[in-house]
Amino acid sequence: MKTQWHLFVAFFRVGMLGYGGGPASIPLVHKEVVGKYQWMDDSDFGDLLALANTLPGPIATKMAGYIGYRVSGWIGLINAVMAVMIPTIFLMIVLLGSLTSVQGGGWVEGMTNAVMPVVGVMMAVLTWQFFNKARKGMGWVQTILFTVVALILLELLHVHPGIIIAALLAAAILRKEPKDEDEKGAVKGGDEG
Amino acid sequence: MILYWKIFVAFFIPGVLGYGGGPASIPLVENEVVGRYGWMNVQQFSEVLALANSLPGPIATKLAGYIGYEQGGILGAAIGVFATVAPSLIIMVFLLGLLYKYKDSPKVQRMTLYVRPAIAILLGLIAYRFFAESQAQIGWIQMLLIAGSSYLLIERMKVHPAFVILISLVYGGLFLG
Known about the structure:
The complex is a heterodimer of chains A (193) and B (177). By secondary structure, chain A is mainly α.
């Protein structure tokens, strides 16, 4: 019961504060799930985000649903998905039903504009955390290489992120084991050269 | 009955084809709702979209919920939302279940590692778009002021982001409208 309440509160907050659509709520989900309630650690959250990005459909509900499921099964899934979307849908129906002239209204737009840099900062901090974790796992050289290649593919060649992530996953599976000695040798050689 | 089936199809297609999160499915929703079923014209759709953008929460489900409600009441809203959310969520639950089963294998651990820089870039690009968009709307000075103070509050003083977002909403409503 308490778990369900926590799930509800966590994803209610994510839904109500996630200005700018689903992706804006990613750092909020991270804050609740990894930071506050510690339902998963950073590396699990990273896996989840990668897979959620690879699959189609809205991102916020995929994250909410899956985390709800992991924390307490199908009821948790339904609870979290409801919490993240029902309040805002309800707001939307009420607002559009009663005052249709609210859209483009000055103060609503001002609110959206002011919240964007805040979400931007949270997103940037999360970016740095992912980069830093990657660096700890596979070193500066490989991390920068992977990052630059991903950036070029995404921004210059406009390859779909799902394809890039799928290719990375495939590369991880297909690579031969174990290569520890080779890697150490390569790094050492690089340092000396 | 036929109406509910149409609502289901209209939101099932954007849900399954909408790669890149909610916002990616907006043009797909428009195609179904305006183009195929003619439930609203382009003008009405853009008004709904404008309001959906000003409200918090995921965008795809707000559209599905609202348009479903307009067409078929509460049941219509429920069907629209279900069609948007369920297919990809169910796939995700099963795929991740499989992944965690083999969590300790070196291959799965390497998958996690390889994917991280790409996720960092994706998040970084979203961050960049938020900054660029807000700079275009409210200018450099306001944008840097809000970004700087929210960084200090969230990261240095460990204030919960909910409070910082609420403060910024009030500030924006009062001074940036």
